[in-house]
């Protein structure tokens, strides 16, 4: 998908791809813009405790760093949204924009992966096959397909940056 030119990473997105990316990133932005629910596993993963053995120390550090971390996550998501035409088309990313895309894709994949209960041990292809066989129109089948697409997109961008 992404290819490397001398000074940028370039990809072309169809309207459906752009719509999906805008939707999942808008959900991430909404989550980050709300009051954070520390009991939500996604929030706990996006904003992990620094000192697992010291909740008070983690809370103290969080008090000083969480706003900046949240702002950085929002900025990365907004960079992706701002550089991707809603109706699709070509995207050309400089180094900083590509890095922001990677951060945003990581956050949105993490969010969706936790909601879908995807772990390192999950065989994504088998999970998609199972979901499609049981009910191809199920929300889970669609969400797993989106997760797989986001994974492919992130890997493509990493390869383009490395090349």
Word description of this protein:
This protein has 163 residues and is mainly alpha-helical. The protein has one domain (3-162). The chain is 67% helix and 7% strand. The protein has a three-stranded antiparallel β-sheet with strand order 1-2-3. Helix 5 runs antiparallel to helix 6. The protein is globular and about 45 Å long. The two termini are 13 Å apart. The mean pLDDT is 89.
Question: Overall pLDDT, averaged?
Answer: 89
Give the fraction of residues assigned to helices.
55-70%
Number of domains: 1
Please tally the helical runs, counting DSSP H or I stretches of 4 or more residues.
Answer: 6
Query: Tally of extended strands?
Result: 3
**Rg result:** 17 Å
Distance between the first and last residues' Cα: 13 Å
Give the assembly state of these chains: single chain
- How are the strands ordered across the major sheet? 1-2-3
Stretches with pLDDT under 50, minimum 5 residues: none
In N-to-C order, the SSE pattern is EEHHHEHHH
Shape: globular
Give a short account of the largest sheet. 3 strands, antiparallel
Layout of secondary structure:
Elements: E1 3-4, E2 9-13, H1 15-33, H2 41-46, H3 55-83, E3 89-93, H4 95-115, H5 124-134, H6 139-162
Antiparallel strand pairs: 1-2, 2-3
Helix pairs in contact: 1-3, 3-4, 4-6, 5-6
Question: Short summary of the structure?
Answer:
This protein has 163 residues and is mostly helical. It has one domain (3-162).
List keywords for this structure.
single chain; 163 residues; mainly alpha; three-stranded antiparallel β-sheet; 67% helix
